[in-house]
Amino acid sequence: MADVFGMALNDYQNGRYTEDIKTFSSLDEEDIIPVPYLFRTYDEMPKIEQKALQLASGKVLDIGAGAGSHALYLQNKGFDVTALDNSEGAIAVCKDRGVESTVKKAILDYSEEKFDTLLLLMNGIGLAGKLKNLSGFLHHLASLLLPNGQVLLDSSDIIYMFEQDDDGGYWIPDDGTYYGEVSFEMEYKGQKSNPFDWVYVDINTLQNACESNGFNCELVISGEHYDYLAKLTLKK
After folding, report:
1. Whose CA is closest to 3, among 192, 165, 207?
2. Strand, helix or coil at 103?
3. CA distance to 55, 57, 116, 151, per residue, from 146 (Å)
4. Could you give the CA distance from residue 96 to residue 109 in angstroms, rounded to a whole number?
5. Using H for helix, E for strand and C for coil, what is the string for 140-199?
């Protein structure tokens, strides 16, 4: 499978930026991920991400680190932070940009160390893939937490992508699947990724899943477009 995400990051890092990553999803038409955005500074980050970085404490694992922008910010603030990503190209860019501790693995395959803060930004909970996987995903996160540790994650309620009727209800396909489940493909310079599953979890669904899996779930702030930052801690 082509590491299209990693290719795009490497091209940008090495001065070969000529186009953005195209995304194709089961929900809407073609969209793009602007590659420069993945290299954003703290000042360029949305408020939700800034707040998450302010709340980070102790030893940090940045899950799905991408180009390492969050990890770099925390490292420069003196944190012991590890950037984890399943993309070889992303990890190469993290190292190139100066991230000192990196791991090339999928989060579900990682169990080597425990942390005070797990960061799952840019809708990181989406890595669970489907709603039915959320319990197992939360259990795995719990296994990576030190005593009194926290998970900081953002996600979105994508209900706004469905048509609304006159009385305010939404037309959601009645096929038994959760409306936040999306299938994606990425394309960059003519190369396509394999399709992959991603899940956007609304806050109520997340809180219910946390309740069932031994976590407290606190809504920290809501963003400007159906997005939010949540803080998860293990129940005592």
Report:
1. 192
2. strand
3. 16, 12, 5, 11
4. 24
5. HHHHCEEEEEEEEEEEECHHHHCCECCCCCECCCCCCCCCCEEEEEEEECCEECCCEEEE
CATH 3.40.50.2000 fits domain 4-234? no
Query: pLDDT of 193-222, one tens digit each?
Result: 999 999 999 999 999 999 999 999 999 999
Query: What is the rounded CA–CA span in Å between residue 213 and residue 20?
Result: 38
Quick one: CA dihedral 28, 226, 83, 32, positive or negative?
Answer: positive
Q: Do the strands 196-199 and 181-188 form a parallel or antiparallel pair, or are they unpaired?
A: antiparallel
Rounded CA-CA distance 208/129 in Å is 17
Bridge-partner residues for 228, per DSSP? 155, 222
Residue pair 135/212 in contact by the 8 Å Cβ criterion? yes
pLDDT in tens, 143-158: 999 999 999 999 998 8
* Dist. CA 194–CA 7, nearest whole Å: 15
Higher pLDDT, residue 165 or 192? 192
Between CA 99 and CA 65 the distance in angstroms is: 10
d(CA 225, CA 156): 8
Instruction: Look at residues 68, 49, 61, 44 and name the one whose alpha carbon lies nearest to residue 228.
Output: 49
